[in-house]
Protein backbone atom coordinates (compact mmCIF):
# COMPACT_ATOMS: atom_id res chain seq x y z
CA UNK A 1 0.00 0.00 0.00
CA UNK A 2 1.39 3.45 -0.94
CA UNK A 3 2.10 5.98 1.80
CA UNK A 4 -0.90 8.19 0.89
CA UNK A 5 -3.13 5.09 0.84
CA UNK A 6 -2.07 4.07 4.35
CA UNK A 7 -4.72 4.29 7.06
CA UNK A 8 -4.37 7.58 8.96
CA UNK A 9 -4.82 6.46 12.57
CA UNK A 10 -4.72 10.05 13.85
CA UNK A 11 -8.10 10.80 12.25
CA UNK A 12 -11.58 9.71 13.28
CA UNK A 13 -15.00 9.84 11.56
CA UNK A 14 -18.28 11.19 12.89
CA UNK A 15 -21.84 11.72 11.66
CA UNK A 16 -23.32 15.08 12.65
CA UNK A 17 -26.70 16.78 12.37
CA UNK A 18 -26.62 18.96 9.26
CA UNK A 19 -30.23 20.17 9.20
CA UNK A 20 -33.36 19.67 11.30
CA UNK A 21 -35.56 17.07 9.61
CA UNK A 22 -38.92 18.29 8.39
CA UNK A 23 -41.41 15.43 8.17
CA UNK A 24 -39.71 12.32 6.88
CA UNK A 25 -36.02 11.98 7.68
CA UNK A 26 -33.58 12.35 4.75
CA UNK A 27 -29.94 11.28 4.52
CA UNK A 28 -29.10 14.93 3.70
CA UNK A 29 -30.12 15.84 7.27
CA UNK A 30 -26.76 14.31 8.27
CA UNK A 31 -23.13 14.95 7.27
CA UNK A 32 -20.11 12.66 7.60
CA UNK A 33 -16.98 14.47 8.80
CA UNK A 34 -13.39 13.69 9.71
CA UNK A 35 -11.82 14.94 12.94
CA UNK A 36 -8.58 14.30 14.85
CA UNK A 37 -8.75 11.40 17.33
CA UNK A 38 -9.43 13.23 20.61
CA UNK A 39 -6.91 13.49 23.48
CA UNK A 40 -7.92 11.79 26.74
CA UNK A 41 -8.27 14.07 29.80
CA UNK A 42 -7.69 12.73 33.32
CA UNK A 43 -10.72 10.80 34.61
CA UNK A 44 -11.80 9.74 31.10
CA UNK A 45 -11.13 7.02 28.52
CA UNK A 46 -11.04 6.76 24.73
CA UNK A 47 -13.24 4.13 23.13
CA UNK A 48 -12.96 2.90 19.53
CA UNK A 49 -16.48 1.99 18.51
CA UNK A 50 -17.05 -1.36 16.83
CA UNK A 51 -20.81 -1.12 16.24
CA UNK A 52 -23.10 1.90 16.34
CA UNK A 53 -26.87 1.69 16.77
CA UNK A 54 -29.70 3.17 14.75
CA UNK A 55 -32.82 3.70 16.88
CA UNK A 56 -36.23 5.16 16.01
CA UNK A 57 -36.20 7.44 19.06
CA UNK A 58 -33.17 9.34 17.73
CA UNK A 59 -35.65 10.91 15.30
CA UNK A 60 -37.29 12.90 18.11
CA UNK A 61 -33.98 13.97 19.66
CA UNK A 62 -32.85 15.58 16.38
CA UNK A 63 -36.15 17.33 15.73
CA UNK A 64 -36.20 21.11 15.91
CA UNK A 65 -38.88 20.64 18.59
CA UNK A 66 -37.93 17.46 20.47
CA UNK A 67 -40.98 15.65 21.91
CA UNK A 68 -43.19 17.92 19.79
CA UNK A 69 -42.70 21.05 21.90
CA UNK A 70 -40.14 23.74 22.60
CA UNK A 71 -39.85 22.67 26.26
CA UNK A 72 -36.71 20.67 25.48
CA UNK A 73 -33.80 22.43 23.71
CA UNK A 74 -33.02 21.23 20.19
CA UNK A 75 -29.68 19.58 19.45
CA UNK A 76 -27.35 22.25 17.97
CA UNK A 77 -26.57 21.73 14.28
CA UNK A 78 -23.12 20.18 13.77
CA UNK A 79 -23.46 18.00 16.90
CA UNK A 80 -22.61 14.29 16.73
CA UNK A 81 -25.79 12.17 16.64
CA UNK A 82 -26.11 10.85 20.22
CA UNK A 83 -26.64 7.18 19.37
CA UNK A 84 -25.65 4.16 21.43
CA UNK A 85 -22.45 2.29 20.51
CA UNK A 86 -20.26 -0.55 21.69
CA UNK A 87 -16.51 -0.68 21.42
CA UNK A 88 -13.12 -1.26 22.99
CA UNK A 89 -11.30 1.14 25.28
CA UNK A 90 -7.96 1.91 23.65
CA UNK A 91 -6.62 4.40 26.20
CA UNK A 92 -7.71 5.07 29.76
CA UNK A 93 -7.04 7.71 32.41
CA UNK A 94 -10.10 6.57 34.35
CA UNK A 95 -9.58 4.67 37.61
CA UNK A 96 -12.35 2.11 36.90
CA UNK A 97 -11.68 1.31 33.25
CA UNK A 98 -8.64 -0.06 31.44
CA UNK A 99 -7.54 -0.48 27.84
CA UNK A 100 -9.09 -3.61 26.36
CA UNK A 101 -12.42 -3.30 28.25
CA UNK A 102 -15.49 -3.74 26.04
CA UNK A 103 -18.10 -1.12 26.91
CA UNK A 104 -21.47 0.16 25.73
CA UNK A 105 -22.80 3.68 26.11
CA UNK A 106 -24.10 6.78 24.36
CA UNK A 107 -20.79 7.19 22.55
CA UNK A 108 -22.49 8.73 19.51
CA UNK A 109 -22.34 8.09 15.78
CA UNK A 110 -18.55 8.24 15.56
CA UNK A 111 -15.54 5.98 15.31
CA UNK A 112 -13.87 7.29 18.50
CA UNK A 113 -15.32 8.87 21.63
CA UNK A 114 -14.04 10.18 24.95
CA UNK A 115 -16.15 9.28 27.96
CA UNK A 116 -15.99 9.92 31.70
CA UNK A 117 -17.98 6.72 32.26
CA UNK A 118 -21.45 8.21 32.73
CA UNK A 119 -24.15 5.75 31.63
CA UNK A 120 -21.50 3.28 30.47
CA UNK A 121 -21.96 -0.46 31.00
CA UNK A 122 -19.36 -3.20 30.70
CA UNK A 123 -20.38 -5.80 28.16
CA UNK A 124 -20.23 -9.31 29.62
CA UNK A 125 -18.86 -12.02 27.33
CA UNK A 126 -21.96 -14.07 28.10
CA UNK A 127 -23.94 -11.79 25.77
CA UNK A 128 -22.10 -13.24 22.77
CA UNK A 129 -20.94 -10.99 19.92
CA UNK A 130 -20.44 -7.28 20.65
CA UNK A 131 -23.37 -6.45 18.36
CA UNK A 132 -25.72 -8.10 20.87
CA UNK A 133 -24.84 -5.32 23.32
CA UNK A 134 -26.93 -3.00 21.12
CA UNK A 135 -29.78 -5.50 20.64
CA UNK A 136 -31.02 -8.24 22.91
CA UNK A 137 -28.36 -7.41 25.56
CA UNK A 138 -28.69 -3.63 25.20
CA UNK A 139 -31.29 -0.88 24.91
CA UNK A 140 -33.99 -2.87 23.03
CA UNK A 141 -33.67 -5.99 25.20
CA UNK A 142 -33.58 -3.92 28.39
CA UNK A 143 -36.67 -2.02 27.20
CA UNK A 144 -38.50 -5.34 26.77
CA UNK A 145 -37.35 -6.49 30.22
CA UNK A 146 -38.33 -3.24 31.98
CA UNK A 147 -41.71 -3.10 30.24
CA UNK A 148 -42.58 -6.63 31.34
CA UNK A 149 -41.44 -5.75 34.84
CA UNK A 150 -43.65 -2.63 34.89
CA UNK A 151 -46.55 -4.83 33.71
CA UNK A 152 -46.03 -7.04 36.75
CA UNK A 153 -44.32 -9.90 34.91
CA UNK A 154 -45.63 -12.64 32.65
CA UNK A 155 -48.71 -14.27 34.18
CA UNK A 156 -50.31 -17.59 33.27
CA UNK A 157 -53.57 -17.29 31.37
CA UNK A 158 -52.83 -13.76 30.18
CA UNK A 159 -52.34 -12.58 26.61
CA UNK A 160 -49.68 -9.97 25.89
CA UNK A 161 -50.12 -8.12 22.60
CA UNK A 162 -47.08 -6.41 21.04
CA UNK A 163 -47.07 -3.80 18.26
CA UNK A 164 -43.97 -3.29 16.13
CA UNK A 165 -43.41 -6.92 17.08
CA UNK A 166 -40.80 -7.73 14.41
CA UNK A 167 -38.50 -4.87 15.45
CA UNK A 168 -35.65 -4.95 17.95
CA UNK A 169 -37.83 -4.32 21.05
CA UNK A 170 -40.83 -6.34 19.86
CA UNK A 171 -38.81 -9.44 19.02
CA UNK A 172 -37.14 -9.23 22.45
CA UNK A 173 -40.54 -8.95 24.18
CA UNK A 174 -41.82 -12.02 22.31
CA UNK A 175 -38.70 -14.05 23.10
CA UNK A 176 -38.84 -13.15 26.82
CA UNK A 177 -42.56 -13.89 27.16
CA UNK A 178 -42.16 -17.27 25.49
CA UNK A 179 -39.09 -18.12 27.59
CA UNK A 180 -41.13 -17.33 30.73
CA UNK A 181 -44.02 -19.56 29.61
CA UNK A 182 -46.47 -16.82 28.65
CA UNK A 183 -48.74 -16.25 25.67
CA UNK A 184 -47.84 -13.50 23.20
CA UNK A 185 -49.49 -12.12 20.08
CA UNK A 186 -47.64 -9.85 17.66
CA UNK A 187 -48.68 -7.12 15.22
CA UNK A 188 -46.44 -6.66 12.18
CA UNK A 189 -46.60 -5.50 8.58
CA UNK A 190 -46.24 -8.15 5.89
CA UNK A 191 -45.91 -11.91 5.41
CA UNK A 192 -42.11 -12.07 5.86
CA UNK A 193 -42.18 -10.41 9.28
CA UNK A 194 -45.15 -12.49 10.36
CA UNK A 195 -43.31 -15.68 9.43
CA UNK A 196 -40.21 -14.51 11.33
CA UNK A 197 -42.30 -13.89 14.45
CA UNK A 198 -44.00 -17.29 14.33
CA UNK A 199 -41.07 -19.44 13.25
CA UNK A 200 -37.98 -17.76 14.71
CA UNK A 201 -39.17 -15.83 17.75
CA UNK A 202 -42.00 -18.20 18.70
CA UNK A 203 -45.01 -15.82 18.82
CA UNK A 204 -48.25 -17.73 19.45
CA UNK A 205 -50.21 -15.70 16.90
CA UNK A 206 -49.46 -12.81 14.56
CA UNK A 207 -51.74 -10.15 13.09
CA UNK A 208 -51.08 -8.20 9.91
CA UNK A 209 -51.46 -4.54 10.76
CA UNK A 210 -52.47 -3.77 7.18
CA UNK A 211 -55.11 -6.51 6.88
CA UNK A 212 -58.67 -5.31 6.12
CA UNK A 213 -59.97 -7.68 8.83
CA UNK A 214 -57.45 -6.51 11.47
CA UNK A 215 -60.19 -6.41 14.13
CA UNK A 216 -61.37 -9.95 13.29
CA UNK A 217 -57.81 -11.29 13.45
CA UNK A 218 -57.28 -9.58 16.80
CA UNK A 219 -60.55 -10.98 18.24
CA UNK A 220 -59.52 -14.49 17.15
CA UNK A 221 -56.00 -14.18 18.54
CA UNK A 222 -57.13 -12.85 21.94
CA UNK A 223 -60.53 -14.47 22.64
CA UNK A 224 -60.39 -13.47 26.31
CA UNK A 225 -59.13 -9.99 25.55
CA UNK A 226 -55.70 -8.40 25.71
CA UNK A 227 -54.32 -8.25 29.25
CA UNK A 228 -51.21 -6.22 28.37
CA UNK A 229 -50.79 -4.19 25.18
CA UNK A 230 -47.03 -3.58 24.84
CA UNK A 231 -47.25 -0.66 22.43
CA UNK A 232 -44.13 0.27 20.46
CA UNK A 233 -45.82 2.39 17.81
CA UNK A 234 -48.66 4.59 19.15
CA UNK A 235 -50.61 6.35 16.39
CA UNK A 236 -54.11 5.33 15.32
CA UNK A 237 -53.55 1.62 16.09
CA UNK A 238 -54.18 2.20 19.79
CA UNK A 239 -57.83 3.04 19.07
CA UNK A 240 -58.15 -0.19 17.06
CA UNK A 241 -56.73 -2.24 19.93
CA UNK A 242 -58.48 -0.49 22.85
CA UNK A 243 -61.90 -2.18 22.38
CA UNK A 244 -60.20 -5.58 22.64
CA UNK A 245 -58.57 -4.96 26.01
CA UNK A 246 -59.50 -7.36 28.82
CA UNK A 247 -61.12 -5.94 31.96
CA UNK A 248 -58.41 -4.30 34.10
CA UNK A 249 -55.89 -4.54 31.25
CA UNK A 250 -52.81 -2.37 30.82
CA UNK A 251 -51.78 -0.33 27.78
CA UNK A 252 -48.03 -0.02 28.20
CA UNK A 253 -46.51 2.83 26.20
CA UNK A 254 -43.01 1.75 25.17
CA UNK A 255 -42.66 3.97 22.13
CA UNK A 256 -44.54 6.02 19.55
CA UNK A 257 -42.78 4.95 16.34
CA UNK A 258 -45.77 5.94 14.18
CA UNK A 259 -45.59 9.53 15.49
CA UNK A 260 -41.86 10.33 15.38
CA UNK A 261 -41.85 11.62 11.81
CA UNK A 262 -45.29 13.17 12.06
CA UNK A 263 -46.45 14.11 15.56
CA UNK A 264 -50.07 14.37 14.41
CA UNK A 265 -50.12 10.93 12.73
CA UNK A 266 -53.66 9.68 12.37
CA UNK A 267 -55.15 12.96 13.53
CA UNK A 268 -57.69 12.96 10.70
CA UNK A 269 -59.73 10.71 13.01
CA UNK A 270 -59.95 11.35 16.72
CA UNK A 271 -58.70 8.14 18.37
CA UNK A 272 -59.27 9.32 21.90
CA UNK A 273 -62.95 8.30 22.32
CA UNK A 274 -62.26 4.60 21.69
CA UNK A 275 -59.38 4.70 24.17
CA UNK A 276 -61.44 6.55 26.79
CA UNK A 277 -64.32 4.07 26.45
CA UNK A 278 -61.86 1.26 27.22
CA UNK A 279 -60.39 3.20 30.14
CA UNK A 280 -63.85 3.85 31.60
CA UNK A 281 -65.73 0.70 30.63
CA UNK A 282 -63.00 -1.85 31.22
CA UNK A 283 -60.91 -0.25 33.92
CA UNK A 284 -57.94 -0.10 31.54
CA UNK A 285 -54.77 1.71 32.68
CA UNK A 286 -52.33 3.48 30.39
CA UNK A 287 -48.73 3.69 31.58
CA UNK A 288 -45.48 4.81 30.03
CA UNK A 289 -41.97 3.82 31.07
CA UNK A 290 -38.38 4.51 30.13
CA UNK A 291 -34.90 3.26 30.94
CA UNK A 292 -34.15 6.15 33.22
CA UNK A 293 -33.80 5.19 36.87
CA UNK A 294 -33.95 1.47 36.12
CA UNK A 295 -30.27 0.62 36.73
CA UNK A 296 -31.19 -1.67 39.62
CA UNK A 297 -32.83 -4.04 37.10
CA UNK A 298 -29.70 -4.34 34.98
CA UNK A 299 -28.00 -7.31 36.75
CA UNK A 300 -31.18 -9.43 36.65
CA UNK A 301 -31.65 -8.53 33.00
CA UNK A 302 -28.09 -9.49 32.02
CA UNK A 303 -28.36 -12.75 33.91
CA UNK A 304 -31.66 -13.79 32.30
CA UNK A 305 -30.55 -12.89 28.77
CA UNK A 306 -27.15 -14.60 29.22
CA UNK A 307 -28.84 -17.80 30.44
CA UNK A 308 -31.35 -17.81 27.59
CA UNK A 309 -28.59 -17.24 25.03
CA UNK A 310 -26.52 -20.07 26.52
CA UNK A 311 -29.54 -22.39 26.35
CA UNK A 312 -30.27 -21.35 22.77
CA UNK A 313 -33.73 -20.26 23.93
CA UNK A 314 -33.21 -16.82 22.36
CA UNK A 315 -31.80 -16.50 18.85
CA UNK A 316 -31.21 -12.78 18.36
CA UNK A 317 -31.42 -11.51 14.80
CA UNK A 318 -28.98 -8.70 14.03
CA UNK A 319 -28.53 -7.05 10.63
CA UNK A 320 -25.06 -5.57 10.26
CA UNK A 321 -24.64 -2.68 7.83
CA UNK A 322 -20.99 -2.11 6.87
CA UNK A 323 -19.44 1.36 7.16
CA UNK A 324 -20.06 4.36 9.40
CA UNK A 325 -20.92 6.46 6.33
CA UNK A 326 -24.04 4.30 5.91
CA UNK A 327 -25.51 5.29 9.30
CA UNK A 328 -27.85 7.97 7.83
CA UNK A 329 -29.37 5.55 5.30
CA UNK A 330 -29.73 2.84 7.96
CA UNK A 331 -31.61 5.30 10.20
CA UNK A 332 -33.90 6.39 7.33
CA UNK A 333 -34.58 2.72 6.53
CA UNK A 334 -36.00 2.14 10.04
CA UNK A 335 -38.98 4.22 8.94
CA UNK A 336 -39.11 3.37 5.25
CA UNK A 337 -38.08 -0.27 4.80
CA UNK A 338 -37.71 -1.77 8.21
CA UNK A 339 -36.40 -5.30 8.58
CA UNK A 340 -36.65 -7.93 11.30
CA UNK A 341 -34.70 -7.77 14.56
CA UNK A 342 -31.98 -5.23 15.33
CA UNK A 343 -29.99 -3.10 12.86
CA UNK A 344 -26.44 -2.01 13.76
CA UNK A 345 -23.71 -0.35 11.71
CA UNK A 346 -20.16 -1.71 11.77
CA UNK A 347 -17.68 1.11 12.05
CA UNK A 348 -14.63 -0.19 10.22
N1 LIG B 1 -39.36 3.24 26.52
C1 LIG B 1 -38.06 3.07 26.26
O1 LIG B 1 -37.21 3.19 27.15
C2 LIG B 1 -37.63 2.71 24.88
C3 LIG B 1 -36.31 2.33 24.60
C4 LIG B 1 -35.96 1.93 23.30
C5 LIG B 1 -36.92 1.96 22.28
N2 LIG B 1 -38.19 2.37 22.58
C6 LIG B 1 -39.23 2.44 21.54
O2 LIG B 1 -39.60 1.13 21.14
C7 LIG B 1 -40.13 1.21 19.81
C8 LIG B 1 -39.53 0.10 18.96
O3 LIG B 1 -38.12 0.33 18.82
P1 LIG B 1 -37.25 -0.69 17.98
O4 LIG B 1 -35.84 -0.40 18.27
O5 LIG B 1 -37.80 -2.04 18.14
O6 LIG B 1 -37.58 -0.19 16.48
P2 LIG B 1 -37.49 -1.01 15.12
O7 LIG B 1 -36.55 -2.14 15.27
O8 LIG B 1 -37.27 0.00 14.06
O9 LIG B 1 -38.95 -1.64 14.96
C9 LIG B 1 -40.09 -0.84 14.93
C10 LIG B 1 -41.23 -1.61 14.27
O10 LIG B 1 -42.36 -0.74 14.23
C11 LIG B 1 -43.15 -1.04 13.09
N3 LIG B 1 -43.68 0.21 12.58
C12 LIG B 1 -43.02 1.23 12.00
N4 LIG B 1 -43.84 2.23 11.69
C13 LIG B 1 -45.07 1.83 12.08
C14 LIG B 1 -46.37 2.42 12.02
N5 LIG B 1 -46.57 3.62 11.47
N6 LIG B 1 -47.42 1.73 12.54
C15 LIG B 1 -47.24 0.51 13.06
N7 LIG B 1 -46.03 -0.11 13.13
C16 LIG B 1 -44.97 0.55 12.65
C17 LIG B 1 -42.23 -1.72 12.09
O11 LIG B 1 -42.77 -2.95 11.68
P3 LIG B 1 -43.90 -3.13 10.56
O12 LIG B 1 -43.80 -1.93 9.65
O13 LIG B 1 -43.59 -4.37 9.90
O14 LIG B 1 -45.19 -3.20 11.30
C18 LIG B 1 -40.95 -2.05 12.86
O15 LIG B 1 -40.67 -3.43 12.86
C19 LIG B 1 -39.85 2.60 19.29
O16 LIG B 1 -41.02 3.37 19.38
C20 LIG B 1 -38.78 3.10 20.24
O17 LIG B 1 -38.76 4.49 20.33
C21 LIG B 1 -38.56 2.72 23.85
User: For the record, what is the CATH homologous superfamily label of the largest domain?
Assistant: Medium-chain alcohol dehydrogenases, catalytic domain
Secondary structural class: alpha/beta
Largest sheet: 7 strands, mixed
CATH level-1 class of the largest domain: Alpha Beta
Bound molecules: NADP nicotinamide-adenine-dinucleotide phosphate
Principal-axis shape equals globular
Could you explain the architecture of this structure?
The chain has 348 residues and is of the alpha/beta class. The chain folds into two domains: 3-135 and 316-346, Alpha-Beta Complex (Quinone Oxidoreductase, Chain A, domain 1); 139-288, Rossmann fold (3-Layer(aba) Sandwich), CATH 3.40.50.720. Helices cover 25% and strands 24% of the residues. The chain has nine helices and 15 strands. The chain has helices spanning 58-61, 139-150, 168-179, 191-201, 214-221, 237-241, 272-282, 298-311, 327-336; strands at residues 11-17, 30-36, 45-53, 85-92, 102-105, 112-115, 121-122, 159-162, 183-188, 205-208, 226-231, 245-253, 285-288, 318-322, 342-346. Strands 3, 4, 5, 6, 7, 14 and 15 form a seven-stranded mixed β-sheet that branches. Strands 10-9-8-11-12-13 form a six-stranded parallel β-sheet, sandwiched between helices. The protein has a two-stranded antiparallel ribbon with strand order 1-2. Helix 7 (272-282) links the parallel strand 12 and strand 13 (285-288). Helix 2 (139-150) packs across helix 3. Residues 55-57, 139-140, 143, 163-164, 166-170, 188-190, 193, 209, 232-233, 235, 237, 254-258, 289-291, 334, 338 line the site of NADP nicotinamide-adenine-dinucleotide phosphate.
Amino acid sequence: MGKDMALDTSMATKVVLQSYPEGNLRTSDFAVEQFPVPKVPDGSFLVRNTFVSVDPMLRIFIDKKPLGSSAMPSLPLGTVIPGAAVGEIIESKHPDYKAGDIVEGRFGWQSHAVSAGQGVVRVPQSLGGQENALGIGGLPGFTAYIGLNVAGGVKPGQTILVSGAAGAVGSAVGALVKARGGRVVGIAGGAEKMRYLRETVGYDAVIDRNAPDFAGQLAAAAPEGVHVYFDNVGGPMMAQVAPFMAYGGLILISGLMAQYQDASAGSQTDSLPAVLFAVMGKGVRIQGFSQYGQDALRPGFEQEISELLALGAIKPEVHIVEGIENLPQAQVNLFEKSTTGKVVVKVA
